[in-house]
Each structure stands twice: as C-alpha cells, then as structure tokens.
Hints:
This protein is mostly helical. The protein is built from 18 helices and 9 strands. The strands form 4 sheets. A 3-stranded antiparallel sheet has the order 6-9-8. A two-stranded antiparallel ribbon has the order 1-4.
Amino acid sequence: MKGPEISTKIFGGILDFDAAGYYPGLELLNLTFSATSNNILSNESNIKFIKESHDFARRLVWDFDTYASTDKCKEAFVNDNAKNVVKELLECLQMPIPNINKTPSWERAHFFPYCRSLIHWDARLRSRKIKIERRYLRGGGALAHRVLRDDPNEQRVDVIREGLKSLYPEEQITPLQQLSDVLSKHSVKDTESSDPKESACKVNNDSIEDVFRDGLCNILSHCELSCTSRIKAVISWTGFWLAIMQAKRASEYVDSEIVNIIVDCGSSPGQIRRASARCLKDISSMIGDAIDKCVLLADDDDVLAKAQRRKIISFFSSTCATIGLLNSFKGKRHFTFSVELLETLVLAGTYAETEIPFERFVTEIFYSKWGLIVGRQSAEKANLLSVFDASIFEDNEEYLACQMKAAGLITDYSDATRMVSTRGLI
C-alpha cells in the first residue's frame, strides 16, 4: 500500500503534507464550481468537472521576467505598460502561503477566489506544455466535497447549495470578474472528465462528517457579512475540520481514547502551554500508530517509505499552523487561536443573527462538538482537573474572552452576560 491508499483507508481521503492548510478549501471550491452537472453538489454517481488552470495569469505574475517577453504574452496586451499594470494588480490576489520566505514559483502560487472566474486548478509545465494535474490539490478538498454531496439530509444539502451559490452571485459581474474571464481564455482548460480522487473517497455519514456539514451550513448563513468573509471562512473551516477529523479517525482506528486539544489562550508559558504541546505530540504519535496498524493489516511485503508516513502525519500540524490553531510551523509549538481562526469558528458555531452565551459556546461548541479544551467545564468533562488546578483553566477562559471581545466576537450585556455572535464583524 502507498501513502494515498493508507490515508484513504484510515481517513476517507488523501491527507498529504504538500496539500495541507488552505489547499483543501481551494480544492473544495474548485470541485464545487467546476462541476458540469445542472446543480452543484450533485448526487450523480459519475459527476464530471471542467478544470481551468489560469496558467497565463499565474505565469504573468510569478514568472514575469521570463514569460512577459513570450509571443503569447505580447499578443494578449497592447503594450508593456498594460502587462505591468495587470501583473501588479493580480499579485495582490495571491492565496497566502504562510510557511515560505521567498517568492513562490507560478506552479505553487494560486489566486484567492475573490470571484468565480478566479477559481482554478493545479497546473505544471512539463516538456514545454502546461498540464493540469494534482500537486497541491491532492484530495483533502475532494473528501470534503464528497462528504457534502453524499449528505443523507436533503434539506441541509439544499441549504448548503444555496449558500455556496450566494458566494458568487450570477448577476454580480465586477471588473475583476471581467478581467479574470479574459485572462482565463488564454489559459489551458481541461476536458470534461470525472475526478478519480473524489470518486475514491469514503463517506461514513458519521458524527464527525456532520460537524463539517453543520459548520459549513452556519458559515454560509451569515449573509450579513461580505462574500469574501464567507469564502475565507469556508476555506479555513475546511482545513480545521480535516485536522480534527484526522485526529478523531486515527484514534478510532487504533481503538484509543481521542486526544482532546488543549488550547493555550494566554500570553506566557505555563502548565496549560506544556499540556498543549504534549497534545500535539500525542496526536501526531496516534496518527503514526494508525498508519503502522494499517500497513500491518494490509499484509503487504512492501514497506511504506518514511517520507510518505511523515507526510500523512505532518498534514495535521501543517494545517493547524496555517489556519492559526498552532502558534508556529517549527520550534516549540502549542495549540492557540489566531484572530482569523476565531472568526471562522464563531461563524461555524452560530447561525446567522443568533447569539450564544460565551460559557455555553466554550463548553458545548468548542469542547462537545470539536474537542477543544479551553475552560474549567470542558477540562472537568475531560477529567483533567485531577491533574491540573481548575483555576488555570478559569484564567485561560478569561484570556479567550478578552481576545474574542477585542475581535468583536463577544458583546457584554452585563457583568454576568457575555454573548458570542458576529455583530461586531458587520
């Protein structure tokens, strides 16, 4: 068995280090809006897609010195000044790549899908020809797409369909949409075909898959926020869900108690931070144990390469660091919350124009649904108070409340009433 087979066997789809972070969310949007069926998230057995590369625009931005002088580029623009203006504009649309210090190659760089025509697939230059193929969109988003379209709750699927459509209103034709439409005409486009990675994904229709569906349903309900805010939340939520799903399914595969994620919301080292760092090591070890068990059960003479094993394990930590659930990619690491991730989690945990008491949100949403331990009640439910003093979790919960209030995610109605909502983001 190879790495992708093992990942699919344990987790339902391909989770790979090269495709961690924001890439699964980008892949999800690709598959959603490139489908040729009459309706997005179709339950057809052999759904087809047309994938666009946007290689022309990407090479113009991230391979400008070489590509701008080619005949194809010269034919597309009236003069050099036009090329420079478009290049500078498009450069601002890059999808963030947090763990990189140098300018990326055009093959690694992707546009953030601000408009529908900016959605594009992976592409590579092979033998002087552009090939549409998987390099960074390896299959995490394909699993998320399959989980959505195989949802047995037809009412929820319909709500999610309409919510996804609202991200890119057909009547809203912006100058950026028009520009990207023109640029895409100069790019390579795939022929209509099925997606083998998406077809191979396994859907269990269990509670962890409902977590993704319900969270996405909530995010898409927040029409009071801009389309861009919801798109960012969809991408971040997809990465977050894949990470917690990977930890949960690894524990189930090895018949082990799930390792809940202790999140340190303070600003200085302490007991909680050390416990949080141990959580990361325990989860990574558990994922490794699941891989080893899968290889053993396969009764295969082939030995899984260490690099492939490491890439499956590293999907978890790399995704957490990218979306802001880990403090860094390297060095001493522990679980924490970035402001951007907190916004995503509030959108995923609340329906539009509703509020929930902060204490309930921390216990019933963070812990009971997503396995995140912050405050005293969740620590007590996880049987941690026999090891730790309850006061450190009370302080940790207060640190989180301060952060959320500063981000506009909490409204204080009185000393005893703190409500979580998106009011402060409007």
